TrEMBL record:
<dbReference type="GO" id="GO:0005524">
    <property type="term" value="F:ATP binding"/>
</dbReference>
<keyword id="KW-0406">Ion transport</keyword>
<dbReference type="InterPro" id="IPR027417">
    <property type="entry name" value="P-loop_NTPase"/>
</dbReference>
<dbReference type="InterPro" id="IPR003593">
    <property type="entry name" value="AAA+_ATPase"/>
</dbReference>
<keyword id="KW-0813">Transport</keyword>
<keyword id="KW-0408">Iron</keyword>
<dbReference type="InterPro" id="IPR015853">
    <property type="entry name" value="ABC_transpr_FbpC"/>
</dbReference>
<dbReference type="Pfam" id="PF00005">
    <property type="entry name" value="ABC_tran"/>
</dbReference>
<dbReference type="GO" id="GO:0016887">
    <property type="term" value="F:ATP hydrolysis activity"/>
</dbReference>
<dbReference type="InterPro" id="IPR008995">
    <property type="entry name" value="Mo/tungstate-bd_C_term_dom"/>
</dbReference>
<dbReference type="InterPro" id="IPR050093">
    <property type="entry name" value="ABC_SmlMolc_Importer"/>
</dbReference>
<keyword id="KW-1003">Cell membrane</keyword>
<feature type="region of interest" description="Disordered">
    <location>
        <begin position="307"/>
        <end position="326"/>
    </location>
</feature>
<keyword id="KW-0410">Iron transport</keyword>
<dbReference type="InterPro" id="IPR003439">
    <property type="entry name" value="ABC_transporter-like_ATP-bd"/>
</dbReference>
<dbReference type="GO" id="GO:0016020">
    <property type="term" value="C:membrane"/>
</dbReference>
<dbReference type="GO" id="GO:0015408">
    <property type="term" value="F:ABC-type ferric iron transporter activity"/>
</dbReference>
């Protein structure tokens, strides 16, 4: 059974840079022992501010941040960044350019064996042979690995990674992503990784936290969050979704593609029906109500745009498919990929 002990808890965190705008507007989040949480949100939603607040680089105006029973922040306390047991990997890695890889990793360490410990950490990152190299002599991926080694070397309670893969090309990103997850797991570290890439968040996360407007709007295992988004905003953060506004009648929400179960909402209530592209099941039908307007291959599946039923919609369909542009189709919804939430 995985350890779900809360290591870090954030309650009602508020931070305003301007009087009329809260970068953090009451954010709540728990980080659990040895687990990787991915923080996903659009640009400007407050992700970096939350990370900086955990690191002690921002003061909160309200709320609290606690490591176990130790208060790092509340209305009276602000523990200095250097005394928090936090490791940081910044977006640009922030390595010291005039120091070797080894000196960078040893930087935060103390004690007579600090160089040996830094070397061990570099070896874990498979960069022992680059110990004497300066950052400009390292590739982007190697720099990121040195930055991660530096963050992990002091055995911090929490590691924070701010968009750690964003400067790298797609192939290297995937590789480095897996290596980073392996390294964090091997170290048993509690980690928070910020990203605005849904696919990346789903790939790295044990737990996913969705952020919007300075608040955490949903948390949970990635599959659960994907299958059961709490709102249209949450669903949109994780990928394409069609949103159909509907009213509940006899326990069902009426859509142009037939009724769907109203998920416990009461009759008369306005709801949003969230339909993932893969929910649409298309069948060739000369008398069907919809017409294919566009067909695109996307590797293992196809994207079919179709018009009719009061709008234009996107379906993700299995490849190969005989359905071509201009064909008429009938459309059904697979309820597995449909979710009804409050409007
Ligand atoms: N130093 C600052 N001074 C003034 N406003 C700031 C400052 N830092 C951030 N903000 C504002 O606070 C809000 C949250 O910013 P933040 O950088 O935390 O968002 P983010 O989710 O990390 O965005 P991104 O994905 O683009 O990095 C934004 O409206 C931003 O403009």
């Amino acid at each position: 059974m995985a350890d779900t002990r809360t290591v870090l808890s954030i309650r009602g965190a508020e931070r305003r840079y301007r009087a009329d705008h809260a970068a953090l507007a009451g954010a709540d989040l728990n980080l659990h022992a040895g687990r990787i949480t991915a923080l996903l949100g659009p640009s400007g939603s407050g992700k970096s501010t939350l990370l900086r607040a955990i690191a002690g680089l921002e003061r909160l105006e309200a709320g609290s941040i606690c490591l176990g029973a130790t208060v790092w922040n509340d209305h009276t306390t602000h523990v200095a960044p250097e005394t928090r047991r936090v490791g940081m990997v910044f977006q640009d890695y922030a390595l010291f350019p005039h120091m070797t890889a080894l000196a960078n990793v040893a930087f935060g360490l103390t004690g007579p064996d600090k160089t040996a410990r830094a070397m061990t950490q570099l070896e874990v990152a498979e960069l022992g042979h680059k110990a004497k190299a300066y950052p400009h002599e390292l590739s982007g991926g190697e720099q990121q690995r040195v930055a991660l080694a530096r963050a992990l070397a002091p055995q911090p309670a929490v590691v924070l990674l701010d968009e750690p893969f964003s400067g790298l090309d797609r192939r290297l990103r995937g590789e480095l992503r897996e290596r980073t997850v392996d390294t964090l797991r091997a170290a048993g570290t509690t980690a928070l990784i910020v990203t605005h890439d849904a696919e990346e968040a789903m790939a790295v996360a044990d737990e996913l936290a969705l952020m919007d407007g300075g608040r955490i709007i949903q948390t949970g295992p990635p599959d659960d969050v994907w299958m059961t988004p709490v709102s249209a905003t949450a669903a949109k953060l994780l990928g394409d979704v069609e949103i159909i506004e509907a009213q509940v009648t006899n326990g069902q929400a009426e859509t142009p593609f037939g009724p769907v179960d109203a998920n416990g909402f009461e009759d008369g209530q306005p709801v949003s029906v969230l339909v993932r592209p893969r929910a649409f099941t298309l069948s060739l039908d000369p008398d069907g109500p919809c017409t294919i307007t566009r067909r695109r291959s996307a590797g293992p599946h196809l994207t079919h745009r179709f018009a009719g039923a009061g709008g234009e919609w996107s379906a993700q369909t299995p490849a190969p498919s005989p359905i071509r542009e201009g064909d008429r189709v009938s459309v059904e919804l697979d309820p597995v990929y449909v979710r009804v939430v409050a409007a």
